[in-house]
């Protein structure tokens, strides 16, 4: 059984109302997946319009902040909860011609690290998932942008369009792990679908591993 509620992640009141309806229907929110995002302007930064930057941050950053704030009080009270935030290109590496998008994803990665420390003692875990290249509407936006996207981005997008990119199964397996009890000791991490994340089930690793700076050893 599934229920669908409409809410704009940019508006906290709408999200709060949706969460309240979820509480009535399902008895609370145990796992949140924050995945809403827009790619925003593609091309050299100096050619972009400031109002387009605002839309990127309203959705990609404030959308995540609003979503987390809407569900955290009940998770803290219950002393149990899982939050998964979908990251993306630019969170760990520079992404020329996509500067606002990259900046928004880097901001979210550090937000996740910081919030994870705040709620660690309340048994709430929050992590970022880097899903890799998958065919979406953003792929088409890159291809439509042509030279403004840059040769590397075009090459990657064309390959993703042909192959479909990362399989959904790989992404789902990582999400299921982070949403399960097996990952109760894992929090504040930025984990790529290609990372050797299965070893995290049996070890904590270094505190700075799988963070915004991407220290993996």
Share of β-strand residues: 5-15%
Q: Largest sheet, order of strands side by side?
A: 1-2-3-4
Number of helices: 7
Largest sheet: 4 strands, parallel
How would you portray this structure in words?
There is one protein chain. This protein has 217 residues and is α/β, with parallel strands linked by helices. It has helices spanning 12-26, 50-60, 62-78, 99-119, 137-145, 151-163, 168-178; strands at 31-34, 81-86, 124-130, 190-192. A 4-stranded parallel sheet has the order 1-2-3-4, sandwiched between helices. Helix 4 links the parallel strand 2 (81-86) and strand 3 (124-130). Helix 2 packs parallel to helix 4 and helix 5 (137-145) crosses helix 6 (151-163). It is globular, with a radius of gyration of 18 Å. 35% of the residues are buried. The model has no long low-confidence stretch (mean pLDDT 93).
Give a quick set of tags describing it.
alpha/beta; 9% strand; single chain; 217 residues; four-stranded parallel sheet; globular
Short description:
With 217 residues, this protein is of the alpha/beta class. Helix content is 45%, strand content 9%. The chain has helices spanning 12-26, 50-60, 62-78, 99-119, 137-145, 151-163, 168-178, and strands at 31-34, 81-86, 124-130, 190-192.
How is this fold's topology laid out?
Elements: H1 12-26, E1 31-34, H2 50-60, H3 62-78, E2 81-86, H4 99-119, E3 124-130, H5 137-145, H6 151-163, H7 168-178, E4 190-192
Parallel strand pairs: 1-2, 2-3, 3-4
